[in-house]
Amino acid sequence: MLQQVDRDAVFVFWRLTFLRNLHPLPNQTVNRAALFICAALLGACLLGFAACKATPVAAPVAPPPVTTATGPTDEASQALPKDLYPSMPIYPGAKIEHVRKPKGAMREIMFSSDGQMPQMVAYYKDELKKNDFHITSSLIMPARKTWSCDFHYNGRPGSIMLYPSDQDKTKMTIDLIYELPAHIDESLIEPKEDFDIEGPGEMAQQAPGTNPNPSEKEKRN
Question: What residues are paired with 89 via a beta bridge?
Fold first, then answer.
């Protein structure tokens, strides 16, 4: 009896399975593979598009600035400028190398000399004091053979620096920097008024015997 029931159950299960698979999909495995490939290609395309979109665009590189040549900074003549201090001491035998054009209110003159630094320092210290230059500060560095001095003359500041020449270490460079004199606009200066007080003229000639300064008694008479 039990065996008959088992056979009937198997038969019913087999029929249900047959009915469920009555129209099987012969290409089911192939379609899943195709779908997987399509999905993978779509994902790769999306990733590539996102990467391209996220990549920053390089900014255009600006061309290097064009440097324009500036004019010469030296004066046409190497003579001492007229705006230099009238009593400025110049080391004996010093040769003018550069007379710079004014830069703002300052001018620079560079000399070269065969002198030795100790003698040159002593010369400038003595001569500046003799010519009424007021030295405000000075600094010497023997190891570098350098000396600097700040001064002013009638309110105009200036400075001197001594150091070995860049081209020839056996020579010394004298670097002089000073303030240009102030130019006063004469049109803004008030004219000077000179008052010339003149009397009514020469005193009339008095008659002989008359007193030019009569007394009160004489006035009453």
Answer: none
